[in-house]
């Protein structure tokens, strides 16, 4: 078992890393920046125990205690497999439960080819949201990875995000108050009236 880090201000450097995203134009992963502020985006990763060094210069365990996956809802997350940062036993019940959940919902390890996973039985064809990639040939092994996602992974991630976006919009609409619904209806009605007047004026001038 690795030695746990008990001081948050020392452990923070092990948890905060620059976020990266795929740039299709450059064909490479690049540092992510916030669309509104332009500031670099950082990602927090699950805590890890350290196996060497001291609390000023900890050397983290090389054993990743998480699954880095594209979930069924389109979010890319790191799912912890152990209950504690210092626990390196990946065969415990918590790990088994998380892996079973990943299979059940069709989570895809970041950078994996979804079609290759279908071929090996790790993923069911029905769990693919991007219908356009169904039936296509899987990518050649070694031609893709976390830093070079294949076209099928990119398409599946986009499809899952779009589906989640629609589901969220539907839930928000269902929870709208009557006042909000009335305002939205009036806005649509106003838009229709303005459109009709514009068309009528255009025909009159003609």
Question: Can you walk me through this structure?
Answer:
The chain has 206 residues and is an alpha+beta fold. The chain contains 5 helices and 9 strands, in the order αββββββββαβααα. It has helices at residues 8-15, 93-105, 114-120, 151-174, 178-205; strands spanning 16-18, 20-23, 28-31, 42-44, 50-53, 58-60, 66-70, 76-80, 108-109. The strands form 4 sheets. The protein has a 3-stranded antiparallel β-sheet, with helices on one face. Strand 7 and strand 8 form a beta hairpin. The longest helix is centred in the last third of the chain and has 28 residues, at 178-205. The chain is extended and about 80 Å long. The model has no long low-confidence stretch (mean pLDDT 84).
| Total number of strands | 9
Strand order, main sheet: write it out: 8-7-9
- What is the count of DSSP helices, taking H or I runs of 4+ residues? 5
Order of helices and strands: HEEEEEEEEHEHHH
What portion of residues belong to β-strands? Answer: 15-25%
- Oligomer status: single chain
Distance between the termini: 83 Å
Mean pLDDT equals 84
Rg, Å, rounded: 24 Å
Note the main attributes of this structure.
206 residues; three-stranded antiparallel β-sheet; two-stranded antiparallel ribbon; 5 helices; 9 strands; 39% helix; extended
In short:
The protein has 206 residues and is an alpha+beta fold.
What is the topological layout?
Layout (H helix, E strand, L loop, with lengths): L7 H8 E3 L1 E4 L4 E4 L10 E3 L5 E4 L4 E3 L5 E5 L5 E5 L12 H13 L2 E2 L4 H7 L30 H24 L3 H28 L1
